[in-house]
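Thread amino acids onto this structure.
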C-alpha cells in the first residue's frame, strides 16, 4: 500500500501563488507516474498536471504557463507550483500516483485525500 498526503492548500488572492506538496509513503514501492487532479463540487475531477518516472510532463491547457509540476525522487514527493492563480482555479486538489509494489510487482493507482485551494477575486 502507498499513502499519498497533500499539503499546501489555502486561501490566496487572484494573481497570487501557492505550492502544493504530495508525499508518498509506504513499503517497498516505486512511483511510475504521479500528478495532480482537481475537482469542483458538482463537476468531474480533471487532470491538472502529471509527470512520469522518465521526466515527461503534461498539463491541462487551462494551467499551461502558470503551473509547474516537479518531483523530488529522493523524498518521494511531487510539487505543484501554482502562479497567477485565478478564481476558476478554486477546487480541491488531489494527488494521484501509480506505483509498483516491489513485493508483489503489482501496479496500482492511489489517491490522496485532497487539499482545498481557494482563490478570491
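Threaded sequence (121 positions):
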Amino acid at each position: 500500500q502507498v499513502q499519498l498526503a497533500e499539503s499546501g492548500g489555502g486561501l490566496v488572492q487572484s494573481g497570487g501563488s501557492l505550492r502544493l506538496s504530495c508525499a508518498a509513503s509506504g513499503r517497498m514501492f516505486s512511483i511510475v507516474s504521479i500528478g495532480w487532479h482537481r475537482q469542483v463540487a458538482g463537476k468531474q475531477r480533471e487532470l491538472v498536471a502529471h509527470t512520469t518516472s522518465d521526466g515527461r510532463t503534461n498539463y491541462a491547457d487551462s494551467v499551461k504557463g502558470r503551473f509547474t509540476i516537479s518531483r523530488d525522487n529522493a523524498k518521494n514527493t511531487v510539487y505543484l507550483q501554482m502562479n497567477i492563480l485565478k478564481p476558476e482555479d478554486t477546487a480541491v486538489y488531489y494527488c494521484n500516483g501509480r506505483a509498483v509494489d516491489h513485493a508483489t510487482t503489482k501496479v496500482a493507482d492511489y489517491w490522496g485525500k485532497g487539499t482545498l485551494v481557494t482563490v478570491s477575486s
